[in-house]
Amino acid sequence: MPYRSHRSTGEDLRRRLRLRRVVGVAEDGAVSVAVIVRNAATAKSSRCILGRSTGGPTVTRTGRHHVIIAAVRTYPSTVGPASQDPDPLRVMQVIDSLATGGAERMAVTLANELSALVDHSIICATRSMGPLEGSVADEVEAVCLERAGRFGWRAARTLRARVREDRVAVLHAHGSSIYFAALAVAGPGRPVLLWHDHNSRLAERSVRLARVGAALADHVFAVSEQVRDWQVDGGTPAAHIEVFPNFVEIDGPAVAAVDLPGVPGGRVVVVGNLRPEKNHVGTVRAFARVATAVPSAHLLFVGSTANSEVVEAVLRAAAELGVGSRVSLLGVRTDVAEVLAACDLGVLFSHAEGFPVSLLEYGRASLPAVASAVGHVQTVADLAAGVRVVAPGDEAGLADEMEALLRDPAAREALGREFRDVVERHFSSRLLGHRRLRAASCERPGVTELRGGARPSRCVPTRRHGRGRRGRGT
């Protein structure tokens, strides 16, 4: 069905409910509307009117206003082009940079997936771009504010202007960027503000700062149950926070990289920036036990080497254990999928994790994995036989699991296939995009998207903006 204007329908709804905005339209004519009203009495009457059409939307309070977001089943109008939509739905991801990391990869993935579900998807790096800039889809607008200092007042003014200029409806802040984003858009008429809490280093975190971040946001997403429980124990209302599991985009098989150290059948890979909590040194010690039993084994580390202390400790441990020539630091790679396609086993031996994206990337590449039972790892392992778990710091257990899998190619292949199936069924953008992604990231948990009549097959944007990626801007 061609795109149709919902102008007449929107005007009718605006007249009946005093709507401020009509924010999107689905291809089958189901209209998504944001109803912003000033008081509880009007909100109650609006809910009754919408309830007769949709089955009863949920009302939430944002600042001084009540907000109702719902979708009303209508017949498409033939009057006017879709470009006459008064207020398209635009969503902006905000994160410090596009360096390689789990939070950064999730911000990019969300921006890419939402580009097919909303009118305009934007990703804003407040400080700098990075290697992940190349992973941003052409349909997503990428913006860099080049923020300097802790707050960066000039960058805050720039973000505020961009939000107003682009009429951004939802600001999805990742990690510590919640404080900057809240400062930049503070005041009347600000967009819905979501906070995505990726930080699993709970022992190092400030409860007070986390409570402030949660209070600034309209809703909080936690990367794992552990992070959610820590937030709730620290004073964040349980109804204000929910677990939003990480996920990955599922593509076809990647072409294996051809310039990697080691030989097929023996490559063990660890994807993760070299930081103390990732326990790369412990992985080297466990690998040294395996190296004597499996002569073809070779250990590859993929991730940032900016932490010189950890890098030196890894190289020193490898040299002292006699495996220096069989341990390679590949640094930051933009072809992680191709590297994984050329490897045989994934390892994640961290002391602490939230929901490691790298574990899902192993599964997407059909690699069996051995991981320490931290964060959300055990949840994945309960679903996938292709994930073997060991206790954090159990180097002997890690070595035993790695050796067993390296010695059995048939088991590796079968477990890898099974792990990919689990990722596709439970942690893929295909699943979340149609079941939950738009409601969770765009329409605010607790503000339920409801549709009267038949449910549409999918939501589509009213139009595609042709600007593409704007790159660096001020």
Report on this structure.
- The protein is an alpha/beta fold and 474 residues long.
- The protein folds into three domains: 104 residues, no CATH class; 160 residues, Glycogen Phosphorylase B (Rossmann fold, 3-Layer(aba) Sandwich); 160 residues, Rossmann fold, CATH 3.40.50.2000.
- It has 15 helices and 18 strands.
- The strands form three sheets. An eight-stranded parallel sheet has the order 11-10-9-8-5-6-7-18, sandwiched between helices. A six-stranded parallel sheet has the order 14-13-12-15-16-17, sandwiched between helices. It has a four-stranded antiparallel sheet with strand order 1-2-4-3, covered by helices on one side.
- The longest helix is centred in the last third of the chain and has 18 residues.
- The protein is elongated and about 65 Å long.
In short:
It contains 15 helices and 18 strands.
Strand order of the largest sheet: 11-10-9-8-5-6-7-18
* % residues in beta strands: 15-25%
> How many strands, which pairing sense, and closed or not: the largest β-sheet?
8 strands, parallel
How far is it from the N-terminal to the C-terminal residue, by CA? 39 Å
Supply the CATH class of the largest domain: Alpha Beta
Report the strand count: 18
